[in-house]
Design goal:
Blueprint: H1 15-50, H2 54-82, H3 84-103, H4 108-136, H5 142-170, E1 178-179, E2 182-183, H6 184-190, H7 193-202, H8 210-215, H9 219-229, H10 236-248, H11 267-281, H12 284-289, H13 291-296, H14 302-326, H15 332-354, H16 368-386, H17 389-399, H18 406-457
Antiparallel strand pairs: 1-2
Helix pairs in contact: 1-2, 1-3, 1-4, 1-5, 1-6, 1-7, 2-3, 2-4, 2-18, 3-4, 3-6, 3-7, 4-5, 4-17, 4-18, 5-6, 5-14, 5-17, 9-10, 11-17, 11-18, 14-16, 15-16, 15-17, 15-18
C-alpha cells in the first residue's frame, strides 16, 4: 500500500518532517529578528536624510514595537478563529508590504507608519510561531523545536546586521551614499521583502495545528497530521480522544478567563507577563536596535560599529545553539537562573566601563582599557541572554498556560513583552545622553531581580504534555 506524507501508518513518525514544519513556522521568527534589528544599521542614514535628532529617531525605532504589541494582542483570537496557518500568511504579507514601504518613505512620519505595519507582523509572528510549534511538537523534543523560534530570531538579527554592513561598505562606508540610485539605508530596510515572500510561500507547505483541526471538527485531517508528527507507537485515536476531551471541557477563550486572584489576573498569566517584561528590561534590544549609535557614542566610527553589530549577532547565534542543546536536557529554570547571573555580572561590568566615557555624540571617547572591557562585557551579556532568557521565555510562553487560555494568555504576555520592549527602546537615547553608565546599572538590577522571580515563580515544564498544564 502506498502512503503519502500525510497518511503514513502510526509508528512511522517522521522527525525530519516535524523539523521542517517547525522551521517553516519559525521563519516568522526570522522576520521578527530581521525587521526589529535592521533599523539599527539604518538609523544614522535616516537621521541625516531627514535631518532629525535622537528624539525623532527613538520614535521611529520604537514605533514598530507599538505595532508589535497590537499584533501580539490580536493574534491569539485570530488564530482561534481563522487557524494558525492563515495568521502566518497574513503576517507574511504585512512584512512584505512594510519592507517595500519603508524603502521609499517621503517623510519620517510615513516611515514610522510603515514601521508600525511591520510591527503588526512582528507581533503576530511572535505569538503564532511558539503556539503552533508547541501544538505540533511531540513532548520529548518540544523544547528543542520551540527553540527554533529564538534560533530564527537571532539568525534574522545576524543576517540583517550582515546585510547592513555589506550595503554600507558597498556605499563606501556611508549609509546615505547611493547603490543603483538608491541610498544604502533604503536598501537595508527594503531587503526584508525577500524573506517575507519566502515565509509566505512556506506556509502553504505545512499542516494546520491538529488541535485547531479537532476544534474545527476536521478529525480526519487531524488524524493525518498527528500520524506524521507523533512519536513512534503512539495511539493516534487515543491522542485525538485526549485532545478532543480537553477541548470539550473548554469554551472559547475570553479575556474574562484570564481574570482571577487578588491581583486581577490569574497567577500563571502574571508569571507569563513577568517573564516577558524581565526579558526586555535587561536591555538586550538596546544592543540590537541601537548598536551603531551605542558604539559611536563611545568613540567608535560608523563602519566599525556595524562590524561590532555583526559580531554580537554571531555570539547571539552561538548562545542560542547552546540553549537548543540544553533546554530539554537540564530544563528551563536552570538555564534562566544561570543566564540571569551572567547578565547581571556582565551588565555591571559594562556600566563600570561606560562610567569612563568623556564627551557626547561623535566627540565621545573611552579609554582603551575600558573600551575593551565594554566590548567584552557586551558580548558576554549577549551570550548569557541567548543561552537563557532569549530561548527560555519563548519556550515557556508556548507551554506554561492551560489549554483553555493558551492562545489568549500567550497574546497578553507577548503584548506585555512588546510594551516593555518599547519602553526600553524609546527611553534609551535620552537615558544614554543623561548617563550611559547609570542606564546599564538599571539594566543590571533587573537582571539581578530576575533570579528570585525565576526561583520562586516559574515552574519547570520540561517533558510535560500540554494537556497536563494547569
Amino acid at each position: 500500500m502506498t502512503t503519502t506524507a500525510h497518511s503514513r501508518p502510526a509508528g512511522e513518525a517522521n522527525l525530519g518532517h516535524i523539523i521542517f514544519i517547525a522551521a517553516a513556522a519559525a521563519m516568522g521568527g526570522f522576520l521578527f529578528g530581521y525587521d526589529s534589528s535592521v533599523i539599527s544599521g539604518a538609523v544614522t542614514g535616516i537621521q541625516h536624510h531627514f535631518k532629525v535628532g535622537n528624539g525623532e529617531t527613538a520614535l521611529v525605532v520604537s514605533s514598530a514595537l507599538l505595532g508589535s504589541a497590537v499584533g501580539a494582542a490580536g493574534a491569539g483570537g485570530m488564530a482561534d478563529r481563522m487557524g494558525r496557518i492563515r495568521v502566518m500568511q497574513i503576517a507574511g504579507v504585512l512584512f512584505a508590504i512594510s519592507g517595500v514601504g519603508s524603502m521609499f518613505p517621503p517623510s519620517i512620519f510615513v516611515l514610522g507608519v510603515w514601521r508600525v505595519i511591520g510591527g503588526l507582523a512582528i507581533g503576530m509572528a511572535s505569538v503564532i510561531a511558539p503556539a503552533y510549534i508547541a501544538e505540533v511538537a511531540p513532548p520529548a523534543v518540544r523544547g528543542r523545536l520551540a527553540s527554533f523560534q529564538q534560533a530564527a530570531i537571532v539568525l534574522g538579527i545576524f543576517i540583517s546586521q550582515l546585510v547592513n554592513y555589506a550595503l554600507n561598505q558597498g556605499a563606501g562606508g556611508n549609509p546615505n551614499d547611493h547603490i543603483a540610485g538608491i541610498q544604502a539605508w533604503q536598501w537595508m530596510l527594503g531587503a526584508e521583502t525577500v524573506p517575507a515572500l519566502v515565509y509566505f510561500l512556506m506556509t502553504f507547505a505545512i499542516p494546520e495545528s491538529p488541535r485547531f483541526l479537532i476544534a474545527s471538527g476536521r478529525i480526519d485531517r487531524a488524524r493525518a497530521v498527528l500520524t506524521d508528527i507523533e512519536d513512534p507507537g503512539t495511539d493516534i485515536d487515543a491522542r485525538i480522544a485526549e485532545i478532543h476531551g480537553v477541548i470539550q471541557t473548554e469554551h472559547k477563550s475570553r479575556f474574562a478567563e484570564l481574570l482571577g486572584g487578588r491581583a486581577g489576573l490569574k497567577t500563571i498569566v502574571w508569571v507569563g507577563i513577568g517573564a516577558s517584561v524581565f526579558q526586555q528590561f535587561v536591555g538586550i534590544n538596546v544592543i540590537f536596535y541601537y548598536s551603531s549609535l551605542l558604539w559611536q557614542s563611545v568613540g567608535i566610527n560608523a563602519s566599525n560599529s556595524l562590524l561590532i553589530s555583526v559580531s554580537t549577532s554571531l555570539v547571539n547565534i552561538v548562545g542560542t545553539v547552546i540553549a537548543i542543546v540544553l533546554v530539554d536536557r537540564i530544563g528551563r529554570r536552570p538555564l534562566a537562573l544561570a543566564g540571569s547571573a551572567g547578565m547581571a555580572v556582565s551588565l555591571g561590568t559594562a556600566a563600570w566601563a561606560f562610567s569612563y566615557r568623556h564627551g557626547t555624540g561623535t566627540s565621545a571617547t573611552l579609554p582603551n582599557l575600558q573600551a575593551t572591557v565594554a566590548l567584552v562585557a557586551a558580548h558576554i551579556f549577549v551570550l548569557c541572554f541567548a543561552f537563557s532568557w532569549g530561548v527560555v521565555v519563548w519556550v515557556l510562553l508556548g507551554e506554561m498556560f492551560p489549554n483553555k487560555i493558551r492562545a489568549l494568555a500567550l497574546s497578553v504576555a507577548a503584548s506585555a513583552q512588546w510594551i516593555a520592549n518599547w519602553a526600553i527602546t524609546v527611553s534609551f537615547p535620552t537615558m544614554s545622553d543623561w548617563n550611559l553608565s547609570a542606564t546599564y546599572v538599571i539594566y543590571a538590577c533587573f537582571a539581578l531581580l530576575s533570579i528570585p522571580f525565576v526561583y520562586f515563580c516559574v515552574k519547570e515544564t520540561k517533558g510535560r504534555t500540554l494537556e497536563s498544564m494547569g
